[in-house]
Amino acid sequence: xxxxxEIRKKQYKKLVDEIKPRPPLVRNTVGAFIxxxxxxxxxxxxxxxxxxxxxxxxxxxxATSSTLVFLAALFTGLGIYDEIAKxxxxxxxxxxxxxxxxMVSPAMEYRTEGFxxxxxxxxxxxxxxxxVFGILSAWLVALLYHFFR
Amino acid sequence: MIFLKxxxxxxxxxxxxxxxxxxTTHKVTPAHILVGYVVGGVVLSAFGLYQPLIDWAGAGAxxxxxxxxxxxxxxxxxxxxQKGILGAFSGGVAAVATGISAAVIFGYLAAxxxxxxx
Lengths: 149, 118
What we know:
Helices cover about 80% and strands about 0% of the residues of chain A. Chain A is mainly alpha-helical.
């Protein structure tokens, strides 16, 4: 005996919900939170360490950024960064080391085009736009500050 | 406590970026995220909203690329205070000089020392 259509529809929907893979959205978001958080946590440890060495707040911040940038360049070169990025998603893009990764990846890939137009130019495939818009907007803010403060 | 705050705020910055990538119909690439976040950091900093976040969450606010925008903006503003309009040109880049140089130097060296996989 067949059940009424509405019930079968409900059962079918339930079955589909059970079978279909969980939306990657949840996994991606959790991954981004954990990896982004962990990198910030490492940054905080570095910041405390450098301040403990007697560096000023600004210098300790610069040293922290440089260390994270160094690690990102190294891990990208070793091919480890891409593996981490599979799980970390935006958690590996947004921190300052994501900026370094965005420089090394294309530069490595285009090495065959030479050290000048290959590596040298491709370092700025993504970093270039970031610097353009960053410098432009900061300049604009400073200009407004100059005239309207 | 500062470690927990750094973790949570650092994580949340990335969650927002992940949602922008996954939920918007536009094709949002990492390049768009980085550009958007730097400009976002500049704007938040200009309204005086970013420094309080750094005071509260430490590296949770300085490690995300928005912190780079904050440094650019504050550098440019301080430049104006010290040198007038010329400072608007010099202050920003001067404030982020260490980070940019580190990225260029380490980036270039890594790119020539290592061979891409595959």
